[in-house]
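Fold this sequence, please.
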Amino acid sequence: MNNINYLSVIIPVLNEEENIDILISRLSRVLGQREICDRYEIIFVDDGSTDSTRGRVIEACERNDNIKAIFFRRNFGKSAALMAGFKEACGEVILTMDGDLQDEPTEIHKLVNKLNEGYDLVSGWKRTRNDSLEKVVASRIFNWIISRVLRLKLHDFNSGFKIYKSWTVKDIRLSGNLYRFLPVFVERQGGRVAEVPVTHNKRIHGISKYGLKRYLHGLFDLLTMIFLSSFLFRPMYFFGLAGLPLMGLGISGGFYLLVKHLFWLVTGDISYQLNSRPLLIIALGITGLGLSIFLFGLLAELILHVSSATTTPFFYSIEKTISKRQGSERG
């Protein structure tokens, strides 16, 4: 295993007061042996905790020069926490893990070994999950669907235990729960993606932050990801696929009515008269709807070409950042 020069470990936390000290102890023991990296930093991103998590993290920063902390003003979600961590990270390699002790620090070497084989992102696959049966079944169904719809063969998209080369995530923009699809974003950028089986511990302290609504969110996120991965830089393709068929259907209906109207002019049969046909209103409506969708596509193309990714706002608000090593507290 080749040592990493500088490793950044990003840990989003929300109400994990009982796990902070244990996690730091386990991580420091693994990373301090220098078998994995020469230097490291641990970045906690507190996503609006309401218990004593913030105090525990601040105390850890005061004790350990390798620990940084970012505190959100309120809960913005895991995607925002990861984006803030990615922006703050200094290492050429970035590791993400959850703060609930279910990710095992002693398994980091597996991710590093796989990364050293030439991959840009390696995801930990919780082959044996220590969760409820409901969560296990739902996760397997979700991962099966995602891997086939998005054509990226992974067993565990939901895993927060991942290691990245920093170029893959430095400028990424995430919203909602799109952090699940980070391997897809990296693969679409031309990065090489792999996964390795890792140990998944049973949660001892605290409670899961995900309820039944995560299934509905998962469906919306999948639809969003399909759109982003297929049409992000070609919105006209999406709107054109929807608008042009409607326009074609409306115009065909109008042509049909026009032919019937010509029959009225020739035969005098009132049933062929154009203004007595309800289908005329339907054809005009469908044509107008298709044209509107098509014009939305043109507008999306215009917005895309005049905007820049650097102007995209971050969807979170940082109250303060603590970094003892740099001797700073920003807020």
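Residues 308-313 have pLDDT under 50 and may be disordered. The radius of gyration is 26 Å.
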